[in-house]
Design a protein that fits this description.
With about 575 residues, the chain is an alpha+beta fold. It is built from 12 helices and 21 strands. Strands 7, 11, 12, 18, 19, 20 and 21 form a 7-stranded antiparallel beta sheet that branches. The longest helix is centred in the C-terminal third of the chain and has 20 residues, at about 465-485. It holds the Pfam family RAMPs.
Length: about 575
C-alpha cells in the first residue's frame, strides 16, 4: 500500500493525472494511475478527487493500481446483479492474491540470507515437534514401481518394511513452503517462462511490439536471480536459480526430519484396493479457461462476468490471479460414508445431496482405466496420525512466527498434501507439540557453550519460557503483516484468502470441476458426473451465451458457480 497526493497536469487540450508519493528512500516520485483500476466511489476521477487529495494505491509495472480512499479496502468493480445468488458447486482450485512487493522492507522485503556459519544472537534455532493427522484420505504413491510404458498408470502406496505408509520429508517441506510463500507474499519459488520477460525494459519492449503477448505478472514477485533478492520463503526454505540464470544457491534454514506413522499395524493406517480404484480425471489448464486464471488488477480481482473473450483472456492488460490453491473440502468432514467402500460406483446417485466425486464413473458397467486417469491400490485412512521434527537455524522472530502460525491454524483449518487434491483427498491437520519443542536464540546457545553444566540434557538449551517464545513469535509475524499492509492481520487480502482455502467454504456446496447438464437431465436438479467426461462443454456453454460468461469468483467471496445446460433449440 502506498499513500500519494493527487495532481492534475494540463498540457494544451490534454489532461493527465498523477500521484506524488515518497519512495522507500524518502524521495518524491510521480506515478500515473491506471484509470481502469480506480475504486468505483472515486469515479470519475476528474470529479471525485480534487487537487492535493490523498489516496491509497498499489504499484506495479510503473503504474498505480487499486486506487482507493485512504484507510479503505479495495472494493473492485460494482457487483453484478444476482452476484450473491448461491451457485451449484465450487471449483476445486482458486487463487491467493499476490499484491506487489515493490515497497516491502525489513523482514517482509528482499535481502541476503544470514548464512549457517554462526548462531546469531537474536535469531532462533532448534526443534519444532509437529503432529500431523489426516482429515481426508491421503495418497502418497510409490512412483518408482510404475512402468512408464503402460498407458493407464496404477500406483501402490509408498510403504516401509512394516507395511506402514511413508510420507517423504520433501513432501512435507513442499507443502509448508507453498503455504509460507502465500502468507508472507514472498516471491514465487518457481515460475516457468518468467525470465523471457525478466526486466522492466524487456517488458516494455514486448508490450510495444505486441500488447497481447502475455499477462502482466509484477517483477517483485518473480523468482530471485541473485542472493540479495531472496524473499522470506527463499531465505527459510532455500533457493536455486531457475533455467541456469543464477550462479549460486542457498540451502535454507529449515530441515524436515523423519516422518513417523504412529499407528502400530498397516490395517489401522491403510485402505487397500486389490483391483485398483480408478480415480476421476484431473483437469489441466487450457486456453479456454482464461476467465478462471486472469485478473483485472494486481489485487487478483476477477475480470468480471459477461466480459468478452478477448478482454477476459491471457493477453491485453490482464494479470495472473495469484498463487493457485486447492481449498479444503470442509463439507466432507461431516458427510458420513463419503469415503467408505470406494470401489462401489456411487457416482450417479446422490447421498445426502453429494455425488461420489473422487471416483471415475463406470461406462456400460465397465471400469474406465485410460491414459487420462489413474488408479491407486491404497490410501491412508482419515484420522491416521504422523509425527515429525522441523529443525530450524537462525530464523528471525518474524520468520519463526510465520512458520509457527502455519503449524497452529484454527480448528477445522487444514493443509493439503499428496495426490488428487482437486478430488478432496490430502487434507491434513498440523499441531505443535509444545512439550517436545525446543527453541533457543544464539545468545542462549552461547550461554550453554560457556557453561560446564548440561542445561536440560538435550541437544538444544530449552528457553526458560517456551510458551512465550512461541506466542511472541506468532504475534511478531502478525504485527509485521498488519503494519506493512496497514490493516488488521485477518483482513489482509492474502491472509484472508489463505484462511478461506484452509477452512473451505461455509455454504456446503459440492466441490468439483465445472460440468454441463446432460441433455436428458432436468433443469434445477443436481447433475451427476458424466461417465463420458466432456467437462469442456461447460466452458463452451459459458462462452457461447453472453448472459453467462462466468469467471472464477474471488475465493473470499465465492458463492459458487452454476451448472450450465445446453442452449435451447
Amino acid at each position: 500500500m502506498t499513500l500519494g497526493a493527487f495532481h492534475i497536469i494540463v498540457k494544451g487540450n490534454k489532461t493527465k493525472y498523477t500521484f506524488n508519493y515518497p519512495d522507500r528512500n524518502g524521495e518524491t516520485r510521480n506515478i500515473m494511475p491506471d484509470l481502469t483500476s480506480v475504486e468505483p466511489s472515486l469515479q470519475p476521477i476528474s470529479e471525485k478527487i480534487k487537487e492535493g487529495d490523498k489516496v491509497e494505491f498499489d504499484i506495479a509495472n510503473g503504474k498505480a493500481y487499486n486506487v482507493r480512499p485512504v484507510g479503505s479496502d479495495w472494493r473492485g468493480p460494482e457487483p453484478d446483479a444476482g452476484k450473491d445468488k448461491m451457485g451449484d458447486f465450487h471449483n476445486p482450485y482458486n487463487f491467493i492474491p499476490t499484491p506487489s512487493r515493490e515497497n516491502y522492507v525489513g523482514d517482509l522485503g528482499d535481502g541476503n540470507p544470514r548464512g549457517h556459519h554462526v548462531y546469531h544472537e537474536d535469531c532462533y534455532s532448534g526443534r519444532i515437534r509437529v503432529k500431523m493427522t489426516t482429515v481426508t484420505p491421503l495418497i502418497v504413491p510409490d512412483t518408482a514401481k510404475v512402468d512408464p510404458n503402460i498407458e493407464h498408470k496404477k500406483y501402490d502406496p509408498l510403504l516401509d518394511e512394516k507395511g506402514l505408509p511413508i510420507v517423504p520429508p520433501t513432501s512435507i517441506k513442499g507443502m509448508l513452503r507453498a503455504a509460507f510463500e502465500a502468507v508472507t507474499n514472498s516471491r514465487m519459488g518457481v515460475f516457468a517462462g518468467s525470465y523471457e520477460i525478466r526486466s522492466k525494459r524487456e517488458q516494455r519492449e514486448r508490450r510495444q511490439e505486441k500488447e497481447d503477448v502475455t499477462a502482466h505478472i509484477d517483477e517483485s514477485l518473480l523468482p530471485a536471480t541473485e542472493m540479495s533478492q531472496l524473499s522470506p520463503a527463499d531465505r527459510v526454505f532455500g533457493w536455486v536459480g531457475q533455467e541456469g540464470k543464477a550462479k549460486s544457491a542457498y540451502r535454507g534454514n529449515l530441515r524436515v526430519g523423519h516422518v513417523r506413522c504412529l499407528e502400530d499395524c498397516p490395517q489401522k493406517a491403510l485402505d487397500t484396493f486389490d483391483d485398483g480404484l480408478p480415480l476421476a480425471i484431473l483437469g489441466q489448464p487450457k486456453p479456454q479457461q482464461g476467465r478462471f486464471y486472469m485478473a483485472q488488477n494486481t489485487n487478483g480481482d476477477p475480470v468480471g462476468k459477461g466480459v468478452d473473450k478477448e478482454k477476459a483472456g491471457y493477453g491485453g492488460k490482464n494479470y495472473l490471479r495469484g498463487r493457485k490453491v486447492y481449498p479444503h473440502h470442509g463439507h466432507l468432514v461431516v458427510l458420513d460414508g463419503y469415503w467408505d467402500n470406494p470401489m462401489e460406483d456411487r457416482t450417479q446417485k446422490a447421498i445426502n445431496g453429494f455425488f461420489q466425486e473422487y471416483r471415475q464413473p463406470r461406462a456400460n458397467d465397465e471400469e474406465q482405466r485410460t491414459s487420462q486417469n489413474r488408479s491407486i491400490t491404497g490410501w491412508v485412512r482419515p484420522k491416521v496420525a504422523f509425527e515429525f521434527d522441523l529443525w530450524v537455524d537462525n530464523l528471525s522472530k518474524f520468520e519463526l512466527g510465520a512458520l509457527l502460525w502455519l503449524l497452529s491454524l484454527k480448528e477445522n483449518h487444514c493443509h493439503r498434501l499428496g495426490g488428487a487434491k482437486p478430488l478432496g483427498l490430502g487434507s491434513v491437520r498440523l499441531e505443535i507439540d509444545r512439550a517436545q519443542t525446543q527453541l533457543a536464540t544464539g545468545q542462549d546457545m552461547k550461554a550453554r557453550y560457556q557453561s560446564l553444566t548440561d542445561l536440560d540434557g538435550g541437544l538444544w538449551p530449552k528457553t526458560a519460557d517456551e510458551e512465550n517464545v512461541i506466542d511472541g513469535a506468532i504475534e511478531a509475524y502478525k504485527s509485521a503483516i498488519a503494519s506493512t499492509n496497514d490493516k488488521e492481520f485477518e483482513k489482509v487480502s492474502y491472509i484472508a484468502a489463505f484462511r478461506r482455502a484452509a477452512k473451505g467454504y461455509d455454504n456446503k456446496l459440492p466441490v468439483h470441476y465445472p460440468r454441463a447438464r446432460q441433455s436428458n437431465q432436468q433443469e434445477g436438479k443436481p447433475a451427476p458426473p458424466n461417465p463420458n467426461g466432456e467437462s469442456f462443454k461447460w466452458f463452451v456453454f459459458n462462452e457461447g451465451d453472453p448472459n453467462n460468461r462466468y469467471c472464477l469468483p474471488d475465493i473470499r467471496k465465492d458463492a459458487g458457480l452454476p451448472i450450465l445446460s445446453p442452449p435451447k433449440k
